[in-house]
Design a protein that fits this description.
Elements: E1 2-7, E2 10-12, E3 18-26, E4 31-39, E5 46-52, E6 57-59, E7 67-72, E8 77-82, E9 91-101, E10 104-109, E11 113-117
Parallel strand pairs: 2-11
Antiparallel strand pairs: 1-3, 3-8, 4-5, 4-9, 5-6, 7-8, 9-10, 9-11
């Protein structure tokens, strides 16, 4: 089992910045990949950014050049630095961890944190 706790959401004006954090606990040695997803009202949940154990990263086209995902292995934490925020970035952001044990893949989710970009 893996537990994920997000923090750092809030209200910010367009052009502003926020930093989300996700602290993992439990069976963290089984985590292969961590990422951030978001879900806006009336829309499907979508991948925002992901980072592997080898620090390879992947971003949605809509956030490339504005968002940066990073990890602090000492604190078992993943961060999402969000700059130049736009109203369309408004969503609930969810932390995600993928574990692989033998051939079994399991995804874990955090509770979500609201990000609102508005003037």
């Amino acid at each position: 089992q893996v537990q994920l706790v997000e923090s750092g959401g809030g209200l910010v004006q367009p052009g502003g910045s926020l930093r989300l954090s996700c602290a993992a606990s439990g069976s963290i040695s089984n985590i292969n990949l961590m990422g951030w997803y978001r879900q806006a009202p009336g829309k499907q949940r979508e991948l925002v950014a992901a980072i592997t154990n080898s620090d390879s990263t992947n971003y949605a086209d809509s956030v490339k050049g504005r968002f940066t995902i990073s990890r602090d292995n000492a604190k078992n934490t993943v961060h999402l630095q969000m700059n130049s925020l736009k109203p369309e970035d408004t969503a609930v952001y969810y932390c995600n961890a993928l574990t692989v044990v033998v051939a079994t893949r399991v995804r874990y989710w955090g509770q979500g944190t609201q990000v609102t970009v508005s003037s």
